[in-house]
Amino acid sequence: MMKGHIVIASPRGFCNGVRKALETVEKTISRGDAPLYIFHEIVHNDFIVNNLKKRGIIFVDDLSAVPRGSTVIFSAHGVSKKIEEETKTLGLKTVDATCPLVKKIHEKAVEFSEKGFFIFLIGHKDHPETEGTFGRITGKAAIIESLSDLENMDLSKIAGMKTAFLTQTTLCREDTSVIIARLRELLPDIEGSGDICYATTKRQEAVKELAENCDTVFIIGSAKSSNSNRLREAAEKAGASAYLINSASDIKNEMLKNAVNIGISAGASAPECLVTELTEFLKNNGWTR
């Protein structure tokens, strides 16, 4: 089969939240705080995490593993109030690398809680961002992963309560809009505006355009990365064969078997060097840029 062109999406790769989180890590390293700990992965990207490990950074999912007096960085996804309080109890110094948009959602969660609202948090239950936001809510709330979660709720239990919704920032706007529309049908007075990250939305739009012109699309990003998974889904929905890969080394022959024009994008936590590496790999295998 004839090999065609390589098309690279724009925008792609690092968002401001990821960039600021990594800058925070670098500033903390330069201060000489060692050993340095990070609670959860700073961002969901294996390349970045492994490079930081090589530099002596220790990643933990349990704060009790951090020696008293040590410095721990909160990841870009944010943490719950409980985790913040635990660091004080354990005598740890903290540095907050939470994405500014996620911080704003935390503030909304606290505000709605203080006003007695029942909060619907649209997001993935096992994602650290959702865990952190949910852990800021002091009143009644529910996590909604899908439309079926909402339809299966007994809303009579919250009759008479003021209601609001919040969303995980890295979801697909099209998917959340269906849930939000249903919430507004069921609860006409519900408050909320949706909090999908602007950078996330723009990257999804760029990938849809990419998929209209390319039969095969590679998204560089971790399988744990919500926004990277949404990019792959966006390309697939637009009609392309789409693959989520950590790097060029993940590509198998069958992925390229029927590929003519190939599109490339990268999740919000994937560095540009991996895009360059993949582009060179494809050029060396007969595709043109």
- State mean pLDDT (0 to 100 scale): 96
Q: What fold name stands as the CATH topology of the largest domain?
A: Cobalt-precorrin-4 Transmethylase, domain 1
Task: Give me the CATH superfamily of the largest domain.
Answer: 4-hydroxy-3-methylbut-2-enyl diphosphate reductase, catalytic domain
Q: Any idea what the radius of gyration is?
A: 21 Å
- Helix percentage range: 40-55%
Give the ordered list of helices and strands: EHEHEEHEHEHEHEHHEHEHEH
Biggest pleated sheet? 4 strands, parallel
Give the count of helical stretches: 11
Provide the domain count. Answer: 3
Cα separation of the termini: 18 Å
**Which consecutive residue ranges, at least 5 long each, have pLDDT under 50?**
none
Residue share in β-strands: 15-25%
Structural class: alpha/beta
Q: What is the 3D form?
A: flat
The largest sheet has its strands arranged as 1-11-9-10
| CATH 2nd-level architecture of the largest domain | 3-Layer(aba) Sandwich
Which CATH class of the largest domain is shown?
A: Alpha Beta
The quaternary organization reads as single chain
